[in-house]
Design brief:
By secondary structure, the chain is of the alpha/beta class. The chain is built from 16 helices and 20 strands. The strands form 5 sheets. Strands 12-13-14-11-10-16-17 form a 7-stranded mixed beta sheet, sandwiched between helices. Strands 7-6-5-8-9-19 form a 6-stranded mixed beta sheet, sandwiched between helices. A 3-stranded antiparallel beta sheet has the order 3-4-20, with no helix packed on it.
């Protein structure tokens, strides 16, 4: 991205280096006005019925389908990714989120009756409401410039919030399409274009209810710190260095094909991409041989920028300097665009930076492990914990290992696909961030639960003033009645508690 004039973003196709278009950036000083406008718009949107909001989402779905080709063209122009990936990894997740929300959001966010099993609270009634947070800031990355902001905005809007979206300055056109689609259907989604300074201004704005940030771990720390100054909650979807465990009973062909896709999808620029493969025992040699052979046949799209390619190249060069071997790739081809060859590294020592740093490029390391326990230890030896996959023909073995792996998601004989399944949670731990998007958990994270009680006011309250000499003994008995013993002992004790409380109430009754 180069700045042609003050306030103008130039969008360059990373495959051809040709100019795609220009976008005027938002002045950081004007961001607060956008948030204020979104706050006003949210009041009416939040009061709309869930059915009305569902109709808006359904209209957006129709418009996305109608404009699918245009959306794919825009994504390909801005990122250089293969057109098929614009459909599978951008449009499929977006439409699946809309379909899932249309079916489930209203029921999930409906007022929830809260029961009182406690005998002394039987006269009360209560309801749990899921209220909107207000204005949600969505700060989106460039690697999936349509799907990520689209799905996050859809969940926020379904929960009754308004949204201010700040796309990456490298892919502003895809972000503008997201806003255009929702706004045309009547949803309160506003757009702030620009670089990190605009993002900083958005996070620092008054009146935010939440920040959803997807990006690097270093920037995520700064976002969390800035939002924390105003006690604004954040969901952080940050980096990853996903491990793939190939056990000795895995289907070799499927594991190799899965590794190719998991490692090299979107030229490796995937937070949940496979960056580390651990192969058990004698399967190692045939696995790496076939993986390297098939990797040489791939024709990948480019990296997003020269800076990103330089970062990937530096990590590979460092690994080779420390004694690693490249079975294929290991350098940039001589062609126009920010391309880098698919690279398979073996014999990578622990001192190499690539063993610990996120690569975010078309590079994967493969190591032999003696058994499944060694594979789990190696997989968990990382500050990142987004996803992991286990490749085995034994489903029970996969389930057992899944509970031992430190990750937000563990897949069996597949990898990363569940981002396009809206019912599945998405998010990680450690340096991969915290909080969840997608699924009912992502929806609940965009609400403020409110407990509302109703009491007729006719039942005396025995724990109010004045206390007397018998109060402590009575409540001591109540503790035993409520929380000690088996069901029959509790039933007898609760009956005794009831009689004791009735006597206390009678003493305090006017």
């Amino acid at each position: 991205m180069a700045v042609a004039a003050p306030g103008e973003l130039r969008v360059v196709n990373p495959a051809t280096l040709e100019l795609v278009g220009t976008v005027m950036a938002t002045e950081p000083a004007d961001v607060q006005e956008l948030v204020t406008e979104a706050k006003v718009a949210q009041e009416a949107w939040g009061e709309a019925s869930p059915g009305d909001r569902r109709k808006v989402l359904q209209q957006v779905s129709k418009d996305v389908l109608r404009r699918a080709g245009e959306i794919a063209d825009t994504v390909v122009a801005e990122t250089g990714k293969p057109r098929v990936e614009a459909y599978t990894s951008e449009l499929f997740p977006a439409l699946d989120a809309l379909a899932w929300l249309a079916r489930h959001a209203e029921a999930l966010l409906a007022p929830e009756r809260v029961g009182y099993p406690q005998l002394h609270l039987k006269h009360k009634r209560a309801v749990l409401y899921y209220e909107p947070l207000g204005v949600v800031a969505v700060i989106a990355p460039w690697n999936f410039p349509f799907a990520i902001p689209f799905t996050q905005a859809a969940y926020a809007l379904a929960a009754g919030n308004s949204v201010v979206l700040k796309p990456s300055e490298l892919t502003p056109l895809s972000g503008a399409l997201v806003v255009e689609l929702f706004a045309a259907a009547g949803a309160p989604l506003l757009l702030a274009q620009g670089d990190g300074a605009v993002g900083e201004a958005l996070v620092a704005s008054r009146g935010l209810g939440k920040v959803l940030f997807t990006g690097s771990t270093d920037v995520g720390r700064r976002v969390a710190a800035s939002a924390g100054e105003r006690l604004v909650p954040v969901t952080l979807e940050l980096g990853g260095k996903d491990p793939m465990l190939v056990l000795d009973d895995a289907d070799l062909s499927r594991a190799v094909d899965g590794a190719l896709w998991g490692s090299f999808l979107n030229c490796g620029q995937v937070c949940s991409g496979v960056e580390r493969i651990y192969v058990e025992g004698d399967l190692f040699e045939p696995f790496v041989e076939e993986l390297a052979r098939k990797a040489t046949e791939l024709d990948l799209g480019p990296l997003i920028s020269a800076e990103q390619r330089d970062k990937v190249a530096a990590l590979v060069d460092d690994a080779l300097a420390h004694g690693a071997r490249a079975l294929t790739g290991g350098h940039a081809p001589e062609r126009t665009g920010w391309f880098y060859e698919p690279t398979v590294l073996v014999d990578v020592p622990g001192t190499a930076r690539i063993e610990h740093d996120e690569t975010f490029g078309p590079v994967v390391t493969v190591a032999r492990t003696s058994d499944e326990n060694a594979a789990v230890r190696a997989a968990n030896d990382s500050p990142f914990a987004l996803g992991a996959s286990v490749w085995t023909s034994d489903a029970e073995r996969a389930k057992r290992l899944a509970h031992r792996l430190r990750a937000g998601t563990v897949w069996h004989n597949d990898h990363a696909y569940s981002y396009a399944a809206a019912q599945a949670t998405w998010g990680g731990r450690g340096e991969s961030g915290f909080g969840r998007t997608h699924s009912k958990h992502g929806l609940f994270d965009l609400t403020a639960p409110k407990f509302v009680d109703r009491d007729s006011g006719r039942v005396p309250v025995p724990w109010w003033f004045p206390y007397d000499e018998h109060a402590a003994d009575a409540f001591g008995g109540a503790l035993a009645a409520l929380y000690a013993g088996g069901p029959f002992a509790r039933a007898r004790a609760m009956w005794r508690e009831r009689r004791a409380l009735v006597r206390m109430v009678r003493r305090y009754r006017p």
